[in-house]
Amino acid sequence: MQKLARLCGPSATLRNVGTPMAEIESMFDSVFPRNPVETLRDFQSAQPVNAVQLYGSNEDILDAYYIFIHPYYPILPPPDRLPVIHNPAGVDHPDGFKPTSPLALAISAMVALVPHKDVKNPARPEHVKIRREVALRFAEAAYAAIAKDYQPLRAPGGFEGSLRDSIGRPPFHPKLPVCLEGVIALSILCFYEYGQQGNLDNTARLANEALEMAFMLGLHESLEENEYALARRRSWWFVGWRLRVEAQQALYEAGIFAVELDETIRRREDASWIQKRMTELDTQITSLLFECRDTLSASQGPQPNCVESVASSALRSYAEIKLHSARIKLHRYCAFQDVPMFSEQPGLHPISPTNGNIGSSASRVRTLPQRPASIQEFGIQFPFSAHTSSVICVHAAINLVTLLDSLPFPNPTNDVSPTNLPYIFQNYEVPRAMPTLISCAMQAGYTMLTLSCKARPFVTKVPELDAGDFPLAGLRNELEQSLRVVAKFLANHAIAFEAIQGMRG
């Protein structure tokens, strides 16, 4: 149970992949020195041929985005040119090409983590090391480009000119203003810091910086309808997909409920607010789930060779996945009242937007009074019985896992067959290159592992019964099958992201 408790924290067994700053600077200088032509020649001679996915033009990088990122995070407008073609550079990589857009660099960092199709064993340490180093160099270059782009906005005297003119760079996407490239790059790099580096502090910092820049650029009040309108809407909280936004909000509110409930128990404060708030949130989430399912049943299936169709279908599934995860967050305390509560369990406390407050926040959490051993000991009156909440949690977890298993895989070969099987490079499946639902998968895993542990004593006490005739045995088998799906989902992401490898154990 002590191990299960760790599955509910924001890091959820993420492995921190840290690199000394001196090594980072050395890596960066070796890829982006003063002479980029020498860089590429040295890199190609030092590394095995076609060991990493590099691209010879902005157009090829953009196509890689639509193949590996857009199906799971469609923050850019639809592709301006079709078909989308996967065209990583080989030995004939054009000397001297160096992305300058922070968005191109951020995308390059993410797709560099996806093993090259010519690599036969991508899990070998030398291949993992190459991908890690190249992705890190691209990420560091993206951070530098973002800082340069937005430096005028941070000038002490203010900035009154055109940021587009100040940047003076051709747009990376024809329907995306060049001044928004840094905001979107920060959003993508959040997932690099989370999935690859395992650094939650940097993830939160980048998200806050992206939000701050979006406010400074007026995305929250932009009403003009022109060729850039869709890009602005997608950059601002994906407002083109209402259900996705509302599902994310419900998940956030369920997380806040869990935080406040946890603090109420720690501080032994008045818990009378819990019944009303939990009932309200459950009604809100249930209503959104019905709407989500109505939308899914009314929609047509995705067209495998149309990236926008695949992305729209996936986002509808994403909304339902987040709602099921929200139900687990909302009901797990009530469902598992008899499960011991460990003080070392990672909390759900949000990281402060300002770095200066992080330490004080952590100190405050450590000084809170010791919690009771279980919620039963505290005596909270929930609006649901433990049995009802347990049923809600198991249904939510199984539905969530079913949806995870149906999500699309990247389609670098433009295969038009309507299959959901992973596309194979050499002897491994192509990983999904955006770890956007990892915490939801871990919530489902926590629920199913907890219920499996609770069911085990009942199953082992009745050896004389046929396991197939014993309902608890059937439930436990169903939970174990679903846990295998969670493990498969995490394993697919772990092909690309090192920090997620720690979740597979």
TrEMBL record:
UniProt name for this protein: Transcription factor domain-containing protein
Lineage start: Eukaryota, Fungi, Dikarya, Ascomycota, Pezizomycotina
